[in-house]
Amino acid sequence: LMLLNACLVVMEETNREAVATAVQRVAGMLQRSDQLDKVEQYRRREARKKASVEARLKAAIQSQLDGVRTGLSQLHNALGDVKDIQNSLADVSKDWRQSINTIENLKDVKDAVVQHSQLASAVENLKNIFSVPEIVADTQVLIEQAELLEAHRKLMDLECSRDDLMYEQYRMDSKNTHDMNLIRNYFGQVQGLSDDLAKQLWMVLQRAMGTVRRDPTMLVSVVRIIEREEKIDRRMLDRKKQTGFIPPGRPKSWKEKMFEVLEGTVTTRIEGSQSVTREADKMWMVRLLEITRKYVLDDLIVVKNLMVQCFPPHYNTLDRFLKLYHNAVSMRVQELAAEDLEANEIVSLLTWVLNTYKSVEMMGHPELLTEYDINLMGPLLPQEVVEALLSKYVQTFTSNITGWLRKALETDKKDWFKETEPEADQDGYYQTTLPAIVFQMFEQNLQVAAQIDETFKEKVLKLCLKQMNSFLIRYREEVIAYKEDHLKDRQLPQCYVQYMIAIINNCHTFKESISSLKRKYLKSMEQTQNDAAIEKTLNDVAKDGCQFLLDEVFLDLEQHLNELLTRKWLTGSHAVDTICVTVEDYFNDFAKIKKPFNTMTSEAHRRVVVEYIKAVMQKRISFKNADERREGAERMIKEAEQFKFLFRKLTAGEETDRLCDAIAAIAEVFKLTDPSLLYLEVSTLVSKYPDIREEHIVALLAVRGDASRDMRQMIIETLNQNKPSSAGFIQPIFKDITVPTVTMTSMSSSMAATANKLLK
To answer: Which GO terms describe its biological process (predicted)?
Structure first.
């Protein structure tokens, strides 16, 4: 009942919330009187929504019910399985209780079996037990005569007899130490024989390089003996896990000892290769490394061709010896690196360690290369040791390259003031020799670094790029100073424009050269920490150069731009003709700028149009009558077409109309003869160029000369109320065009007077 009451309460609250929500929705849909006609439409739409919701609700409830039904069925089946398992466990428990008595009845049989086993072992070893002294003597003679296989066979018989007797004694009475010691003492000489045999084995292994050439069967016998002992060790260890008994002297671990002996032999051979010292021979390091190279290569070829056949395949003999020699050489070169080496000795050591060691002259020899992957071997010297040795060269290189770059820049600066044009490449683009000189220096040092180590080569390249970044910052400063010197006397240097073009092209050459170096000397083209800074600086230099050239153009155009929209211009002026001819002449030279940086045409186009519109906004002229407005507008339209033609020609037919259309659109405002339609014409202008501001419109109306204060006020207020948004406008034109302050002051006074008049 409580649950039912709670459900009823929840349903009532839900109904109230639903009614409130419905009221809000109906109120939202019927806010205006014209929406009452759509009541039936709204009702049908809500009915459809309600039917859709009810259908989804029914489907969801049905899905939940199906899931509950499936779950109950699975629980029922699980209950039946649990009962079956419970019954099976009860049967197993019953059978186990019945078998306990049977196990207890077999205890006597078990004791009899143990006793029989002990007696059988004693009978089996009875012959060996009585002949132990004789077998010991024979085995000792065989060891001295180097009959190792036969000696080991007899040793195994003795050890087998001893171990079996001790094991049976351990099984019968593990705490009876007296009998156990009696057996151990009787076979006491067996351990001595084992030690003597081991000494012979180690002696053969120490001379393995000579033995395998002279008598490989001896080495094979040693390996066979060690393999037998390894099998016995494994068998004894397995029995220890089961019974807890281990014979004396086990495990022998002769295989492990064999590898230790071989490792010591290799180390001794490498350490004994030094025959001269620094005092006796200045080239001692070169001689030492060459002797080591020869010894290692000869020994490994012997291992591959002869010794591999003497060891089982699972020993991976060649790989193991490669590691032994690699470790021994590594220890030796680390000892050499720890000495106070001179500069040439460091070069010799690093070249040998990082280059010669893995070359075809040593570890990369064709006879060895087919058997293993040399790249899987670790470095001979730890990286920190290599870095310490290389740091001296890095310091020297850094100091040298800074001086080289400074000298190269000074030489290039002298060329900028020459009276002859710079050289051009095969495509006719101006350039100087600076990029070639800089990257020739980089290339030479990188080739040396590449001979030492890949990592060091990349480090040197990154250092070059770091120095390149600092150099380019100085380069930009010198370019700016070059421009400032030119502005002091624009007649000097005579080839300023041509060398500025060459400087811009150098930026492209620098980029290409950097990419070429990275492709050649870096494993991957991933970005380095200096790439972004270099890219930005080069772009800044090129951008500055292009801007300086445009400034040069517009300094020549300044006088002619000042003639625009003046009385002289209205009565007949060739200012635009001169502007077009001057721009085209300059851009014939600018054609020798490489394309990645040659964006000057669009910038010049925009700047010409902006300067033209600025001339309009400066109110240099105020038309006195309709004829002047018509004549001025037609002249503006004609000059806009001249600009279109010029920049289409310079951009090889690309779209250039939009910027020039702004001049024509302003001309249409001036050309209009009916002042009553002036608002529509201005509105059209504002819709095309949403970035136009109020002061621009006031200036245009002032130049037109026939707009009354009331008309200006009405046009501005109406446009402010319906001004289109400039968001997303691709190419603003009026944004950076300012109107002189005098115009703004007079406009404010005019607007104040109009406001007072309206208030009255």
So the answer is: exocyst localization; exocytosis; protein transport
